Amino acid sequence: MKPVIVAEKPSQAKAYGDAFKTVKRDGYMEVAPNPIFPEGAFITWGIGHLVELKEPKAYDPKWGKWSLASLPILPDEYQFQVARGKSTQFNIIKKLLKETDTVINACDVDREGSNIFYSIYRQTGVRGKQIKRLWINSLEVDEVREGFRNLRDNKEDLRLYEEARARQISDWLVGMNGSRLYSLLLQERGIHEVFAIGRVQTPTVFLIYQRQKEIEAFKPEPFYEIEGKFKAAKGSYKGKAKLKAKERKKAEELLAAHELTAGKAQGHIKELKTAEKHIPPQPLHSLSSLQATANRKWKYSPQKVLSAMQKLYEKKLVSYPRTDSRHITSGEFGYLSAQVESYQKLIDAPFPIASRTPKKRFVDNSKVQEHYAIIPTKSLPTARRIEGLPQDERNLYEEVMRTTLGMFHRDYRYAETKVVTDVNGLEFHTTGRTELDKGWKSLFPTSKEAKQDPPLPELALHEQVAAAIAIVEGMTTAPKPYTEGQLIAMMKTCGKFAEDVADSEILKEVEGLGTEATRSGIIETIKRHNYIEVKRNVVSVTEKGRMLCQAIEGNLLSSPSMTAKWESYLKKIGKGEGSSEVFLATIGKFIEKILQDVPEQLRSNGMPDQMPALQGTAIAICPRCRKGSIVSRKGSYGCTEHANGCKQSFPAVFLKKRLTAKHIEYLCTKGKTPVIKGFVSKNGKKFNASLELEEGKLKIKF
After folding, report:
1. Dihedral through CA 459, CA 463, CA 468, CA 471, nearest 10?
2. Mapped to the 3 state alphabet, what secondary structure does 613-638 carry?
3. Which of 159, 234, 293, 573 could be bridged to 578 by S-S, CB 3.0 to 4.6 A?
């Protein structure tokens, strides 16, 4: 019987088909008999996630409506369904699987690929087939054929599927319960918004919020240093005493202790040492290091980098991009070494090869597990093909190529000179750097050179110098907001933010929040939910994001440590050392706890019973035109049909009383509000009254 190869998506299936002689059919390809598949084979494909978890209402009608009374949503067993609009392709796969005895999982070589395959396989109802796993790092023809010659068994793959499935269900449980809980509780306070909660996305938003709070709370403070300007026989230079004081008085006292005052003095060069230093070539790229680099150089978002790298992978120009490794094995080094000159010519970067010996900094078989670092493939494109790539793909391909070529280049070398200038026993320190050999840095030409210290003049030990001493004042600066590229690094290294040492260690072990494959998607998700916005590459928390963070503060949902502990156990499931049943039972207990704790936490976090609506939030149908919606704006509420002539509006503050979204909703739907406390009359007296809407105007009703 012909084996059935299941790819994750059509482009991947096409890459497999390129390695064989095939005939295109409807929803699959037929592979002609060949040495690897003597009887031939079928290649079919998913369209990403063909199978998904059912909606809550499919389990119980009461879960179809959002209400606090219906929570928690904790099904006894989890049910899956074919995603809407994808049944045709699913049925093609199902028919092929029924008619074979061997199935090859050729989805992406990661946990998600394992999940996609087994979700489809189990949903078909097909059982008892022999399942093999294709595990490759490149879509080149040679590597595809080699991979099919050396298929793995599915033992590890099944464990990865169990891990990914437990992660998928836990994300679903936290999202379904947490989103309803917070949305409904905030709705009671007048905020008519959906607040999506996620196991990873919510603590990510909270970390950005914490940085923003630090910036807002920051108060610049002066500090004082003592600076010396020195004139030697062959030139001038500057130095600083080892002092950074909060009070000017400390600097004055230090000068007085050395019988100095701010002004002119004589000094001599007490120490003069020059040492040659070198910086080895930078490590090869993982996905996250490439995302951070591309954001710094070209302001590309992490998602744009992943998308472009996926295209380059499918074009067989780079190795598998969703990798967290920065090392390769001796096998990859072998073909890279053999083609160095060709790679150099391709990007017009000639240099003498410094070494063809594999160095542990780059080549370490023990540090490569599922995937190796991102490198160029054996396939050598023409210069014309590279020029024809979209600009983002070309930039990224060249970045990968230049970083790879760095392995064969010389170290960057410079001379570092340290000078100690003595003025009446007070030492001033100066460091100068002189570039000796650009080495591997010549592979990375930049539009503007990094700011360098001015070179030191020629100096001699014990040389007498004229000194001008001054106390200089500086100001402390606020922490900088994150860029999108820094968000990736922050998510990966957030263990340093954990106060508990054990939590910090767990976060290091699991490499922070999310994975190489998911971090860019998480950032896109929190942008889509309007929790953060990115302007000129600077990330800030929106009004809605701030409200979410105020609501979750003090809750485990705001804690990266909680997510890390879960991730640590999920990895145990992937290694066969943990149980998905135990994990999901823990998630169930967590959900029951937040249902119990959150209402009181909102009060202790200072969330008022009535809150002003978020700007732009739809509150009710406009009572005047009946077409638009009344939304919150700065300083007022107005109709979305304003541009088309509807003049209905409401003030945000009426008689010194802030009107909430709930008040506006009452006016739009019922024509009047309940009694509102705290209006202030023109003569300053407080009174209580209800408001009525008459011909679009507010009237007081006592």
Report:
1. 80
2. CCCCCEEEECCCCCCCEEEEECCEEE
3. 573
> How far is residue 688's CA from residue 698's CA, in Å, rounded to a whole number?
15
Contacts of 304 (CB under 8 A, 6+ apart): 294, 392
Angle, helices 484-492 vs 519-528, to 10°: value is: 120
Q: Is 384 exposed, middle or buried (0-12, 13-18, 19+ CB in 10 A)?
A: exposed
Beta-sheet strands, E only, within 187-287: 222-232, 235-241, 263-279
Q: Whole-angstrom Cα distance, residue 554 to residue 600? A: 11
Q: What is the tens place of the pLDDT at every residue in 624-677?
A: 999 999 888 766 889 988 888 999 999 988 888 878 888 898 999 999 999 998
SS3 (DSSP) at 222: strand
Q: Do residues 454 and 206 touch, judged by C-beta distance below 8 A?
A: no
Which band of pLDDT confidence, cut at 50, 70 and 90, is reported for residue 84? confident
Please give the Cα distance from 472 to 239 (Å, whole number). Answer: 12
**Would you state the pLDDT for residue 634?**
62
- CB 623, CB 693: distance < 8 Å: yes
What is the residue extent of each domain of the chain?
4-152, 169-216+480-605, 222-276+412-475, 287-302+316-391, 618-701
Rounded-to-integer distance, Cα 666 and Cα 602, Å: 24
Pairwise CA distance, residues 612 & 191, whole Å = 7
pLDDT at 511: 65
Instruction: Quote the CA–CA distance of 663 and 658 in Å, as a whole number.
Output: 10
Considering the domain 169-216+480-605, what is its CATH architecture? Orthogonal Bundle (1.10)
Which CATH fold would you assign to the domain 287-302+316-391? Answer: Topoisomerase I; domain 4 (1.10.290)
For the stretch 112-122, pLDDT in tens is 899 999 999 99
For the chain, what percent of residues have pLDDT higher than 70? 95
User: In this predicted structure, which of 13-22, 353-362, 441-450, 575-584 has the lowest mean pLDDT?
Assistant: 441-450
Mean pLDDT value across the chain:
91
Domain 4-152 coded CATH 3.40.50.140: yes
CA pair distance 494, 490, nearest whole angstrom: 5
Of the pLDDT bands very low, low, confident and very high (cuts 50, 70, 90), residue 566 is: confident
Q: What share of the chain is helix, strand, coil (3-state, %, to 5)?
A: 40, 25, 35
Q: What are phi and psi of 330, to 5 degrees?
A: -60, -25
Q: Does 222-276+412-475 carry CATH code 2.40.37.20?
A: no
Q: Given the DSSP bridges, would you call strands 653-654 and 676-680 parallel, antiparallel or unpaired?
A: unpaired
For residue 467, the tally of other CB atoms under 10 A from its CB is 23
Query: CA angle at residue 511 from 508 to 514, to 5 degrees?
Result: 140
